Amino acid sequence: MGQRSADEEAHRGGSHAPDVRRFLDRQGRLCLWPPAKLGDKQLVLSYLASFFEAGRRYSEQEVNAILDQHSVINDSAALRRALCEYRFLERTRDGTCYWLVAIEAQS
């Protein structure tokens, strides 16, 4: 596996992301939801979004599996809805397909 960039490491709670680590357990899984502050919520959602690949389409079940893998919160539906609400993920009207929103679109 290749070496991650500092930005990717920060998004994934690495040594460059002390802010997001406040919400993670020792294995890097989300353990606090929802954060009280909007900025913290966006930070956590950005962290979760970093586990999705740009250009790839995901089923609802695949999204839930990724969220369950990176969170001890037993509410993948709430996390999935928040990722869509804050425009980290987009979905089809019927919720059968999800994809990562391009970074340029989030600015």
Descriptive labels:
107 residues; mainly alpha; three-stranded antiparallel β-sheet; 6 helices; 3 strands; 7% strand; disordered N terminus
Give the helix/strand layout.
Layout: H1 6-11, H2 18-21, H3 38-49, E1 57-58, H4 60-69, H5 76-85, E2 89-91, E3 98-100, H6 103-106
Antiparallel strand pairs: 1-3, 2-3
Describe the 3D structure.
With 107 residues, the chain is mostly helical. It has one domain (6-106). The chain contains six helices and three strands; from the N terminus they run αααβααββα. The chain has helices at residues 6-11, 18-21, 38-49, 60-69, 76-85, 103-106; strands spanning 57-58, 89-91, 98-100. It has a three-stranded antiparallel beta sheet with strand order 1-3-2. Helix 4 crosses helix 5. This is DUF2087 domain-containing protein. Residues 35-100 form the DUF2087 domain.
Can you give me a brief rundown of this structure?
The protein is mainly α. The protein has helices at residues 6-11, 18-21, 38-49, 60-69, 76-85, 103-106, and strands at 57-58, 89-91, 98-100.
Question: Which ranges are low-confidence, i.e. pLDDT below 50, for 5 or more consecutive residues?
Answer: 1-16
Placed side by side, the strands forming the largest sheet appear as 1-3-2
First-residue to last-residue Cα separation: 30 Å
| Average pLDDT score | 85
Order of helices and strands: HHHEHHEEH
Q: Pairing-aware structural class of the strands and helices?
A: mainly alpha
Count of all domains:
1
Helix content: 40-55%
Basic shape: globular
Alpha carbon gyration radius: 13 Å
Strand content: 5-15%
User: How many individual helices?
Assistant: 6
Total strands: the figure is 3
How many strands, what sense, and barrel or not for the largest sheet? 3 strands, antiparallel
